[in-house]
Amino acid sequence: MQMSRMSSPSIGMDEDSGAGHALSDFLLQLENYSPSIPDSVVAYYLNMSGFESQDPRLIRLIALASQKFLSDIANDALQHCKMRTSSQINQSSKNQKGPKEKKYIMTMEDLVPALHEYGISAKKPHYFV
């Protein structure tokens, strides 16, 4: 006969206490972490949107999530840039022995598809056309 997990209430409590301990450790580590986006900038935009918090850990957590979001977008835009430049290099010069060090220049061509993946629509301003 198999015993179900619900028959023992201590199993669920052990998992909850482990998750609570991990969360408290994470919050302690968050106090010592300084994100790329300053707390004052995050607090300003949170206040502008109607959110107010006195807990600096919460503001740092939102700053960390924002940093991750921007990092993901920048990484995706870089991948688009690499694909675009590699196809241009393959078409323009097939007889070179090998490129030395590539310098990538990200443009709106790279940023727009990366932003589109996250549901953000961006258009190039008319004066850059």
Quick recap of the structure?
The chain is an all-alpha fold.
Strand coverage percent: under 5%
In round numbers, the mean pLDDT is: 80
Total strand segments = 0
Q: With helices defined by DSSP (H or I, 4 residues minimum), what is the helix count?
A: 4
Helix percentage range: 55-70%
Query: Structural class, please?
Result: mainly alpha
Strand count, sense and barrel status of the largest sheet are: none
**Shape, per Cα inertia axes:** elongated
Q: What is the H/E order?
A: HHHH
Q: Compute the gyration radius: what is it?
A: 23 Å
The residue ranges in which pLDDT falls below 50 over 5 or more consecutive positions are: 1-13
Amino-to-carboxy terminus distance? 73 Å
Main location: nucleus
Keywords: Nucleus, Transcription, Transcription regulation
GO biological process, one term: transcription initiation at RNA polymerase II promoter
Pfam families: TAF10
List descriptors.
129 residues, mainly alpha, 4 helices, elongated, disordered N terminus, RNA polymerase II general transcription initiation factor activity, transcription regulation
Write up what this structure looks like.
The protein has 129 residues and is mostly helical. It is 63% helix and 0% strand. It has helices at 9-32, 39-48, 56-92, 108-117. Helix 3 packs across helix 4. The N and C termini lie far apart (73 Å).
